[in-house]
Amino acid sequence: AEPDYYKQVKSPIDLTRIQQKLKTEEYQSFEEFCEDVELLMENTRTYYKEETEEHKAATELYELYKLTKEKVAKGEPLDKPRVDDNPSSSGSATPSSSMRSISPAPSSRASSNGSSDEVDSDMIEDILCGLLELTDSTGRLICPPFRVLQSKEEFPVYYEKIRHPMDLKTIAEKARGGAYKRMSQVEADVRLLCRNAQQFSGKGSEIYKDAVALMNFFKEKREQVLEKGVHPKR
Q: Is 130 part of any domain?
């Protein structure tokens, strides 16, 4: 990757990582997958100037993505991928080859500062403590609606609308049980937690805004924790 890539791109993603998340079923919804694809292309267009092949490839890929997404939404059959007879004969890079080349391999990066993505329970606890203590500009605690979900019996309408419930208590329990090996796994659950709150409460609501603040804080805290690294085993 270019040496200043992580300074300009705060949330790196590449096709290899997207494929990995598909294989390991990390995506909880089609919307989550779409967010990563759009992030990939937006990162490319942010970093590379308009006249570069990478920027052009990202633009072409985005147009193809939009058409494909529309077909999926309508339930229409998709065209089979077309492979050039002699792709090396063209002077310009194909969208897929250019997109593969713009980001480092997943093993070489996990955070914007280049630190390892490996986590332990102490690192996750550090993040969770920060989330639990997070307040808004008036000093109001943000975490209460996110701490523990009500049961299906107490709040059935929530479970009718939200297919994959998540709360901070569940994340803490998974951390203590050793379920998280990488920070990206923790982030997936925190992102799910925030997205659920936004989906159920709707734009403009206080909880929607709190979910945005919670996710932004997580991203900042994640970088700080990853920079320190895994705690030495006792």
A: yes
The structure tokens listed for 44 are: 């490319």
- 84, 87, 90, 91: CA torsion to nearest 10: 140
Is 80 exceeded by the pLDDT of residue 233?
A: no
Q: How far apart are CA 76 and CA 61, in angstroms?
A: 19
* Distance of alpha carbon 218 from alpha carbon 195, whole angstroms: 14
d(CA 60, CA 94): 9
User: Residue 118 forms beta bridges with which residues?
Assistant: 182
Residue 86 has pLDDT above 50, yes or no: no
Does the residue 21 lie in any domain? yes
Confidence at residue 96, expressed as pLDDT on a 0 to 100 scale? 46
Task: Give the CATH number for residue 144.
Answer: 1.20.920.10
Nearest to 111 by CA among 217, 2, 221, 231: 221
**Amino acid found at 34:** C
pTM of the complete model beyond 0.70: no
E strand residue ranges, 57-120: none
